[in-house]
Amino acid sequence: MKARHIFLFLVLAVAVGYFALSTSNGPRIGQPKTVGAVIIGSTEYTVEIAKTDDERKRGLSGRDSLEAGYGMLFVFPKPDYYSFWMKDTKMPLDILWIHDEHIVDIKVDAEPSSSSQPPTFSPREAAEYVLEINGKDSEVYGFKVGDSVRMRF
Length: 153
Fold this sequence. Notes:
Blueprint: H1 2-22, E1 35-40, E2 43-50, H2 53-58, E3 70-80, E4 84-85, E5 93-99, E6 102-110, E7 120-121, E8 127-134, H3 137-141, E9 149-152
Parallel strand pairs: 2-3
Antiparallel strand pairs: 1-2, 1-9, 3-8, 4-7, 5-6, 5-8
């Protein structure tokens, strides 16, 4: 009888855990679907890879925070002038556009916006990758246009 109660408890715990995970707003930084690394100088970020239209559209919107050393890397099929906005994003972010393994533009500390028409941020040069990291990290670590970037994903 006692073993049956333990078995039922374990089945219930697994079911509750599965339900909680399946109803979340998608993967969270620290628990991403696809991960990689972006290294700028001696600073390494663990990144969630956003490579589909849906993943890129969702981005980091709706998330309350971003752990130190984590970010999101947006991967596009070809270099272009990809614009970003902060709609429904809850924390300031730095946006770094990357082309040919170099930073080509940076928007430092883009502020969150709940506006239906938030401002957009566009690069000065075409890029095929865009990295979002915690706001002001670029200043803290001294990132600048022209810095080399290495990626693993």
